[in-house]
Write a structure and sequence with these properties.
26% helix, single chain, Uridine Diphospho-n-acetylenolpyruvylglucosamine Reductase, domain 1, Uridine Diphospho-n-acetylenolpyruvylglucosamine Reductase, domain 2, UDP-N-acetylenolpyruvoylglucosamine reductase, Uridine Diphospho-n-acetylenolpyruvylglucosamine Reductase, domain 3, binds flavin-adenine dinucleotide, 9 helices, globular, peptidoglycan synthesis, alpha+beta
Length: 366
């Protein structure tokens, strides 16, 4: 199908609008990335379903974008059509059931739940992006994950164009993973979450939050505390603060064999002394030991703000795990920094860090 017949077909769908002059730099929190063929904005779920069906039938590659906060995109002309989900209805039931359309701003959904005294999402306060993207990498923070409240997702299956509610278990949710991530096999159109209704948070598991482990506290207090902690780390979006021009945590925390964790700890003991080695974050998870990527990055010689003030891409000055665009970076600058950090950690500790965001048209492997 020619581009003009495709755009003609798409523009006939009610509640869609086409943009020809939007780049991925305008749509991503890293503010990096080139130009798609064009962008389709979908104001309703029906519009999104119809537009994606038309594009898939035409064999046109698409990139579904919510808040663009987990994307690293190549520069230049990109042979893809961006589908922007702007369906943003949210309903809160008396019984603690929340239904949110994919384009709803995630933190608005969380704020709405906290205002109603519903518990379960408060630790996920301040995570940028859309509700629909939260199952894609099973977003998590401060000891909580969306998997704990998510019950069902409304999926558009891109293999046959069908739309149906699927149980959360069908997504194989795990640490920063679902079977939607990197595959694009289906688009999340809406989601349902079951929250608690007694005004208290989920049992707290993260040491930096006040209170005993396992304690439940008023949801509004926990939200405020989480937001304050996140702001201190540059993990709440702020246009004026380049430390937040990022994709959040750039690498996942590596899960390694306990013997490898022992070796890492010995290496730290050798180079930095016993005291530092004893403090190494290390906890059992997913059949191995999970290590802190941020801690390893720092000990491999990459302090906050690395490499220096003049760099176009540098580590956040507030958190070593965020790679940031200081305003004039291009994707190549960020990718070079990502490679340098990954290679440096591998050379020092023998552990290969894996990026958390989704990469489009570019790869960390040269
Ligand atoms: C400052 C900052 C802090 C962050 N903190 C956290 C954190 O604490 N925890 C955490 O887990 N993440 C965090 N992130 C990462 C990011 O915010 C989350 O992954 C978020 O869920 C991405 O949502 P989005 O709408 O921006 O997705 P996008 O970046 O637009 O898309 C990401 C991927 O999901 C796909 N996608 C988007 N919407 C849909 C949909 N409806 N259906 C199917 N696929 C879809 C896209 O095609 C793409 O592959 C942070 C990011 C930033 C910038």
């Amino acid at each position: 199908m020619t581009e003009s017949s495709l755009t003609q077909k798409l523009s006939e769908i009610p509640d869609t609008a086409l943009d020809h002059d939007v780049s991925l730099a305008d749509l991503t929190t890293l503010r990096l990335g080139g130009r798609p063929r064009f962008t389709v904005r979908c104001a309703t779920t029906a519009a999104a379903v119809e537009a994606i069906r038309v594009l898939d039938r035409a064999g046109q590659g698409i990139l579904v974008v919510g808040g663009g906060s987990n994307l690293v995109v190549a520069e230049g002309d990109l042979d893809l059509v961006v589908v922007l989900l702007e369906n943003d209805g949210v309903s809160y039931g008396q019984d603690g059931l929340i239904e949110a359309e994919a384009g709803a701003v995630w933190d608005d959904v969380v704020a709405g739940s906290v205002e109603r005294g519903l518990g379960g999402l408060e630790c996920l306060s301040g995570i940028p992006g859309s509700a629909g993207a939260t199952p894609v990498q099973n977003v998590g923070a401060y000891g909580a994950e969306v998997a704990e409240t998510l019950t069902e997702v409304l999926l558009l299956d891109r293999t046959d164009g069908s739309v149906s509610w699927a149980p959360a278990s069908s997504l194989e949710l795990a640490y920063r993973y679902s079977n939607l991530k990197f595959t694009g096999r289906a688009v999340v159109l809406a989601l349902r979450m079951q929250l608690s209704t007694d005004g208290l948070s989920t049992p707290l598991r993260f040491g930096q939050l006040a209170g005993e482990a396992g304690q439940r506290r008023p949801v509004a207090q926990v939200r405020e505390e989480v937001l304050a902690l996140r702001r201190g780390k540059g993990m709440v979006l702020d246009d004026a603060d380049h430390d937040t021009w990022s994709a959040g945590s750039f690498f996942t925390n590596p899960v390694v064999d306990p013997a490898v964790a022992d070796e890492v700890q010995s290496r730290v003991r050798e180079t930095r002394g016993a005291e530092d080695a004893e403090r190494m974050p290390r906890w059992p998870a997913d059949g191995g030991d999970k290590l802190s990527a941020a801690w390893l990055i720092e000990r491999a010689g990459f302090p906050r703000g690395y490499p220096d003030e003049g760099a176009r891409a540098r580590l956040s000055t507030k958190h070593t795990l965020a790679l940031t665009n200081r305003g004039s970076a291009v994707t190549g600058d960020l990718v070079a920094l990502a490679r340098e950090v990954r290679d440096g950690v591998r050379a020092e500790f023998g552990v290969t860090l894996v990026p958390e965001p989704v990469w489009i048209g570019v790869s960390i492997d040269a």
